[in-house]
Amino acid sequence: MKRIFLVILLTVNALQLLAQKYPAPPASPNRLFYIQRSNNAHMVIYDANLVNAKTLHYENPVNVYWIRYDETTHKQKLNAVEKALAYGVEAERNSKEKDSFDVKIAALKKRILKVKINDLGKPIALIQINGIEGQLCKVFVQLENEDALKPTVKYIELFGKNLSTGEAIYEKFVP
Hints:
This protein is 16% helix and 53% strand. It has helices at residues 2-21, 80-87, and strands at residues 31-37, 40-48, 50-52, 55-56, 62-69, 73-77, 89-93, 100-105, 108-117, 123-129, 132-144, 152-162, 168-173. Strands 1, 2, 5, 6, 7, 8, 9, 10, 11, 12 and 13 form an 11-stranded mixed beta sheet that branches. Strand 1 (31-37) and strand 2 (40-48) form a beta hairpin. The longest helix has 20 residues, at 2-21. The radius of gyration is 18 Å and the shape is globular. Mean pLDDT is 88; it is low at 4-20.
């Protein structure tokens, strides 16, 4: 009995430490998804850029920025290198579906997102996750050589929601 209690206590403590290192970003009605990385708590946020309640901005449908957890929590723009090599996006109108955009993240150009407003009027980002088209909610990037100027990506995890069933979907891959 003591052994089971100790295992539970250690598991709870480990989960609390993990939650402190990787906090969830503040909620936003325009949130598409966010990227967390293993090297620190800072995260890259992808929000829909709306011109009114149900219309994506024609030229720039996605706002991308950092949330930094330093002494204070604050937003920060991506720099030119971050935009070009890692977190920036290219968006073009989807020719098959009105008011949707095909979006590519600089570091994952082979994975195309579809950004649109869903039937409930909420902006969403759709992507294939483990063979199922789903709503992307979160990306986690596990890095190696985390202290290096250019760390190596060990693996990427996609967390989302199956649009048909509402169930969580997940994929882990090596880029």
